[in-house]
Amino acid sequence: MKKLTVALLTLVVATSSAASAKVLAEVNGKKITDKDLNAAIDSLPPQYHTLKNNPTFRKRMLENLVKEELLYQEALKEGLENDPAFKRRLEQIKKRLLVQYLLSKHVKPPKVEVTKKEAKAFYEKNKKMFTDATGKQVPFSAVEPFIMENLKRQKEQEALNRAVENYVKNLEAHAKVKIYGSSGSAK
């Protein structure tokens, strides 16, 4: 009886997971599911996430996944994954991704604020930037949200750069680092 119950539970779990992953396409036997499509859309910049349920967008994304799978299979068929140049490039990409991941774990984006006073000062200093097609001055109130958002992004990037520098300095303080100049002697 226990074996029958385990077998039925296994069948139910297998059926439910297969049902939740609807096959949308198949390329030389490799299935592309709705989960694959959703993951591809989720990996895009946030502005594309609103199109997740748009049928035309989904169709184009699926077509792209099919093309990518075809190309991937062809690259494997040609043995390109064993090419020394590819392996070097893969190591470079892996290194960059690991660094980005490390920083995302240990360096949190700082919270910054932009005051209306700062935005107004930027506007006054750069008035020539804020004219319409006829050369007429655009009022501060019309561009204030734009200025506030851009100043905020700029401040966030500057603060993040400082946080990364501090994190790296902390790592350097606890590491043995030697830098050799072009002459080969340590600095």
From TrEMBL:
The answer on whether this UniProt entry bears the keyword Signal reads yes
- Tell me the GO molecular function terms: peptidyl-prolyl cis-trans isomerase activity
Q: Mind listing the UniProt keywords for this protein, alphabetically?
A: Isomerase, Rotamase, Signal
Per the UniProt entry, the signal peptide is 1-21
Q: What is its EC number?
A: 5.2.1.8
Q: Tell me which InterPro entries the record gives.
A: PrsA_foldase, Trigger_fact/SurA_dom_sf
Keyword Signal applies:
yes
**Tell me, what's a Pfam family for it?**
SurA_N_2
Its top-level enzyme class, in one word, is isomerase
Catalysed reaction, written as an equation? [protein]-peptidylproline (omega=180) = [protein]-peptidylproline (omega=0)
Q: Which domain of life is it from?
A: Bacteria
Please state what the protein is called.
peptidylprolyl isomerase
